[in-house]
Write a structure and sequence with these properties.
The protein has 419 residues and is of the alpha/beta class. The protein contains 16 helices and 9 strands.
């Protein structure tokens, strides 16, 4: 292969590594929404992903000697560009496809089965592409050392691309980019080095296909069509989440998927498909504030961990308090909540006595030196490892060190008389 073709192939392998990590991260976040944020999704996702990657590599390796890897690389890369879009749409419709009722927890056996099945196409292509790229880089040489050097070069390029893709995924998540739009843009971007490789090697039909993928991706990004497709996929997910309520908005933060729905006169806040709070909270928040303020004998300085449900903090501000400090890690969620929540609830977040600290609660508690007469934990129930971080012995010790003499520490979990 000419030097230009080798450079184009190397660029494509680099782009494939970046695309693989970017797509894997975004699709994994979609699975977490289906799993209600539970980290079991991580094990099932990566287990099935690695299985299918291995299966794709083994299957392709057996037939690689009977085909021209140069002819196969571009079509596989183009299929790879499109596959995550299909997989993301499938995952968002997964609860409908499985046939579970809204808000019902998916049984583990069905979760494992559907995760294993829906992970197959992209993962198989991941394994197949690495094998084909390695064979193309070897250039048909029979020398063992030459083949090893070729595989090493492909691996290093793909790993370097993976680092770039991981950095891009982190930055885009932090910026609140829409996952579907990111995948569309990444698919169009991946098709560019495919086009360059096809042009350098004289594969005109494959070049035309790559140009079509670029044009389709750009068209969907710059016209309302792409947004319409994403809204349809989100609507499919919502049908199996809380269909009786109207979805007001759904967005992703660096920590979770957040949805706000409206049912009659109530606004419902959901994290990763699970209900986190209801507004207005009614007498429940009033009773909660009255109980903890009574137990703490009218504490003047109050610390609240978590702002998923600001109702209790708002009710506490009705008392003669000097300062209320709220520690919440997810700043993006708070900023959006200010514009989406009912006016009365959002207004209390601007009370001059309220200080909002954007920080990891555990780290902040370990380093704080202030003292408080009342400390509350008002996060969703600890049914994931992330949420359980505020219900550990270590955190309780840190929180206890911030209590003033006679202070009260009040965590909260959902329960009932018989459970």
């Amino acid at each position: 292969m000419k030097a230009g073709g080798q450079a184009a192939r190397s660029t494509l392998v680099l782009a494939l590594g970046a695309f693989s990590i970017l797509a894997q991260t975004l699709v994994l976040r979609e699975y977490l929404v289906v799993y209600g944020g539970n980290e079991i999704a991580l094990g099932l996702f990566f287990g099935s992903w690695l299985f299918w990657v291995g299966a794709g590599a083994v299957a392709t390796g057996r037939i690689a000697r009977r085909m021209d890897p140069g002819d196969a690389l571009a079509p596989l890369a183009l299929a790879y560009a499109v596959a995550p879009l299909i997989q993301m749409s499938l995952v968002r419709s997964l609860r409908l496809l499985v046939g579970v009722d809204p808000m019902e927890m998916l049984p583990l056996d069905r979760l494992a089965a559907v995760t294993f099945a829906t992970n197959a196409p992209v993962s198989l292509l991941t394994g197949a592409i690495f094998t084909v790229a390695s064979a193309a880089a070897a250039g048909g040489t029979d020398e063992a050392e030459g083949r090893r050097r070729s595989v090493t070069r492909v691996y290093l390029l793909e790993a370097a691309g993976g680092c770039m893709g991981g950095a891009a995924a982190t930055g885009l998540a932090w910026a609140g980019a829409r996952p579907f739009a990111v995948i569309l843009g990444a698919a169009a971007a991946l098709a560019v080095p495919v086009l360059a490789l096809c042009a350098a090697t004289g594969r005109r039909r494959q070049a035309a296909a790559a140009a079509a993928v670029i044009a389709a991706g750009v068209l969907l990004l710059v016209t309302p069509a792409g947004g319409a497709i994403e809204r349809w996929t989100v609507a499919q997910r919502w049908k199996a989440t809380l269909p009786q309520a109207a979805l007001v908005e759904s967005f992703d933060t660096p920590y979770r998927n957040v949805s706000l729905a409206r049912l009659g006169s109530q606004d419902i806040l959901l994290f990763d498909g699970s209900i986190a709070a209801v507004f207005p909270a009614g007498s429940g928040a009033t009773a909660d504030a009255a109980l903890v303020m009574g137990e703490s004998r009218g504490a003047r300085r109050v610390l609240v961990f978590g702002l998923s449900d600001p109702s209790t903090a708002c009710e506490i501000l009705r008392y003669d308090v000097e300062r209320v400090v709220v520690v919440e890690a997810d700043r993006a969620m708070v900023d959006r909540m200010r514009t989406l929540l009912p006016a009365g609830t959002a207004a209390c977040l601007s009370d001059p006595r309220l200080t909002l600290v954007t920080a990891d609660p555990r780290e902040w508690a370990a380093g704080a030196r202030d003292r408080f007469g009342l400390i509350l934990v008002r996060t969703p129930d600890p049914d994931t490892a992330q949420l359980n971080r505020l219900f550990t012995v270590e955190f309780v010790r840190s929180a206890a060190s911030l209590l003033a003499p006679g202070g009260v520490f009040s965590p909260r979990v959902t329960s009932a008389e018989n459970y």
